[in-house]
Amino acid sequence: MNSTDCPAAALHDASDGRADLGEPPAWLGNRPVVLIVDDTPDNLAFLSDTLQAHGYAVLVALSGEAALKCLARVTPDVVLLDAMMPNMDGFETCTRMKQDSRHEHLPVIFMTALTESEHVVRGFRVGGIDYVTKPVRPEEVCARIGAHVRRSRAQLYANAALSLETRAALVVAADGTIRWQSPQAARQIEAYRARDGQPSDEAIAPPRLPPTLRGWFADWLARGCPTKAVHEFTEGDVRRSATVAPAPEPGEWIVILTEVDDAAHRDALVERFALTAREAEVLLWVSRGKTNRDIGDILGMAARTVNKHLEHLFRKLHVETRAAAAALVVKTLDRS
């Protein structure tokens, strides 16, 4: 192991100190990444060897300044930070880390021989999430890092899902292994498993996409990840679909699941606007951008019959255009 400096630091432009903001080094792979910051090379070597033996990719820095340069290039899963270092100590280093919005939620574990309460409290105040005392016990530090890596990645996935304004989302690897899933997604996945005649999620370790979704996802990857990726099927009045979006980690993707209960939506429109069931069905499909001909094909009626329904609907809704009618539907269903 090169314990003289953070490997990522070699990616900085030596002429002006600017960080190379390209892709992270390939050698990091998909392993959890730990940045160790300690001014003692022997400590770095010991901790690095220990963590690598437990399956982590390790970055090292001999100073707070070197650590900040590493973070300009690579965002680790956890930082293991020596509290007492010359020049910029661990507390100042942590403070400066947290000033960057990218690292606001980065877990920082302090290492210190100082167990006095004021030092422990100071570590938490500057943004630390945990601490271990020196001399560090290998099993303890690995257990703590493992817990914070899992929590950090779960938060990363949840934030990514929330940024897509969706709650039913899961993160999957290229082989279909489910790395994380929201409770709403877990419930919808069970519908796919039931359709495929597969045991429930609890019987599968590690959990993977159900066969139908796994085949669709593998085909999408094999075709070079084209922009459009949609899988749909209908089960009674419930229409289910799956789409793919990029995930925050390389080699992972977010699969977004949606389900629409046409019967429930129809009944909501009937109640809200005093419509007949057929009028509500026509209105529902208008809100989804379908033409009269499309609606006729879907509902098994002539296009002119659809048009007559629309004339009644516009009067009942006090609107004059399809767009205005669709806006009322969206507003009503968002509240239901």
Give an overview in words.
There is one protein chain. This protein is of the alpha/beta class and 336 residues long. The chain folds into three domains: 7-160, Rossmann fold (3-Layer(aba) Sandwich); 164-261, Beta-Lactamase (2-Layer Sandwich), CATH 3.30.450; 274-335, Arc Repressor Mutant, subunit A (Orthogonal Bundle), CATH 1.10.10.10. Helices cover 46% and strands 17% of the residues. The protein is built from twelve helices and ten strands. It has a five-stranded parallel beta sheet with strand order 2-1-3-4-5, sandwiched between helices. Strands 7-6-10-9-8 form a five-stranded antiparallel beta sheet, with helices on both faces. Helix 8 (262-273) packs across helix 9 (277-287) and helix 9 packs across helix 11. It is elongated, with a radius of gyration of 27 Å. The relative contact order is 0.07. Residues 33-149 form the Response regulatory domain. It comes from Paraburkholderia kururiensis.
